[in-house]
């Protein structure tokens, strides 16, 4: 597990599959090889009124860590991240009288996974309740664990195949954590931030 940067890529009047095809050709032209598929999903639950102050629990899964369930509890101004095993999903099912899933908000980012040298690149089609919302590009640089030590290299790599759409600054979530050791929970936080934005967008009106 290295440092991961997540960024949105504009579709520019293309469909989801067309955009993924464009990016796949660009990264393949650099010498990348496809290594299967990936999936990141997020389900959001809200607490029942009898629990008092409303709490929100985001439950996320990442195919890179198949044995781990990530959850982020939001309670007022506090945010508590957890990394647990698969039993957490069963726990949420048993707590259905206290926490209910928000309807029409299940988010997914899935698509092809590429490897090129020390980089792993994932091209994700984002859907909210099966409605296409946009494209997320995830790039992981595996030899590094401190964002500040590899940000310039990652920025150059991203701009190399994303062009002007490549990021010029680190993701907002990482900007105050550039000197810290990176962990899988940091990737989950980045996905949650993007999913939250996508959920607020009007539907594009077509499936990917």
Q: Would you mind describing this structure in some detail?
A:
- With 208 residues, the protein is of the alpha+beta class.
- It folds into 2 domains: 3-39 and 107-200, TATA-Binding Protein; 40-101.
- 26% of the residues lie in helices and 38% in strands.
- It has helices at residues 16-29, 87-94, 147-162, 184-200, and strands at 3-9, 33-47, 55-62, 69-75, 78-84, 99-101, 107-116, 119-128, 131-141.
- Strands 1, 2, 3, 4, 5, 6, 7, 8 and 9 form a 9-stranded antiparallel β-sheet that branches.
- A hairpin with a 2-residue loop joins β8 and β9.
- The protein is globular, with a radius of gyration of 17 Å.
- The model has no long low-confidence stretch (mean pLDDT 92).
């Amino acid at each position: 597990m290295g440092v991961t940067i997540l960024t949105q890529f504009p579709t520019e009047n293309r469909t989801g599959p067309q955009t993924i095809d464009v990016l796949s050709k660009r990264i393949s032209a650099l010498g990348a090889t496809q290594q299967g598929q990936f999936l990141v999903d997020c389900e959001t639950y809200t607490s029942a009124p009898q629990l008092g102050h409303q709490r929100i629990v985001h439950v996320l899964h990442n195919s890179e860590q198949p044995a781990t369930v990530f959850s982020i509890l939001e309670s007022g101004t506090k945010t508590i991240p957890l990394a647990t095993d698969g039993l957490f999903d069963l726990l949420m099912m048993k707590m259905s009288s206290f926490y209910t899933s928000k309807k029409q908000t299940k988010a997914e980012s899935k698509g092809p996974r590429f490897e090129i040298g020390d980089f792993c690149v994932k091209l994700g089609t984002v859907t909210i309740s099966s409605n296409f919302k946009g494209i997320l590009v995830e790039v992981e640089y595996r030899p590094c664990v401190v964002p500040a030590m590899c940000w310039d290299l990652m920025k150059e790599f991203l701009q190399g195949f994303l062009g002007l759409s490549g990021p010029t600054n680190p993701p907002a979530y990482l900007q105050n954590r550039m000197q810290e050791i990176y962990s899988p929970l940091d990737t989950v936080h980045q996905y949650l931030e993007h999913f939250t934005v996508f959920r607020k967008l009007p539907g594009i009106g077509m499936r990917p």
